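Q: Predict the bound structure with magnesium ion.
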Amino acid sequence: MATGIPGYKVILHGDYGVGKSSIFRRFLNNTFTTATGRHSTIGLDHCTRVFKVGTQSVKLTLWDTGGVQRMSYLGSSYYRGAHAALLVYSLSNKDTFGVLSQFILDIVMNAEGAKIFLCGNMADAVNPEQESGQVTEADLEQFMSQCDDVFSGVYQVSCKDNNGLEEMFTDMARVLHRDSVSRLTLRRDLVRPGDTETANSEKSSCC
Ligand SMILES: Nc1nc2c(ncn2[C@@H]2O[C@H](COP(=O)(O)OP(=O)(O)OP(=O)(O)O)[C@@H](O)[C@H]2O)c(=O)[nH]1
Ligand SMILES: [Mg+2]
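A: Predicted complex:
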């Protein structure tokens, strides 16, 4: 299916229980599983969907696995060939936000060149009355000021309410495709001087 369509591998990353598999299920078949039916992810799963970026079709393949496995024997295979990582934390659990820099380091070390997209999930569970334990706008602002250009996109979603997810996937497809097209154009431009060289060497061999 969909041969010839540019495709990008995106791996889910982030602390346990932040909703990585819930994002995966929204991506796969737009469903949501509540706490009672929830199991920590075991094994690897992936799914491909096609998005429209202007008139161009773009494939995103999303990969999900449980935290324990990701850190142990799966090793580099999960990361191999990843164009991007979707780094997830829970807006209602500050601890999952506090460990983001470890995950960024993990991505940078294992998935070289992968773009990082940041996703705050569980927006529905944030209680504006209560400040402690949740991720505030001030926390985010401070973190972003330290992170500079680390993230290619920053989103807030709710898997439960199905809020912001399709917009996030479409935006990731757009950014990944745009950057890959720019890289191709740059490569083509860089090849041009070589073309002259070829022309010159042809000329010299003929003289
Ligand atoms: N309220 C609320 N709960 C959510 C949301 N997304 C996920 N959950 C719940 O959070 C729990 C953990 O979700 P998972 O998707 O299993 O988390 P995970 O990151 O895949 O967890 P591991 O596989 O253990 O790393 C489940 O009980 C979900 O129902 C959300 O947007 N809002
Ligand atoms: Mg999971």
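A: The longest strand covers residues 44-53.
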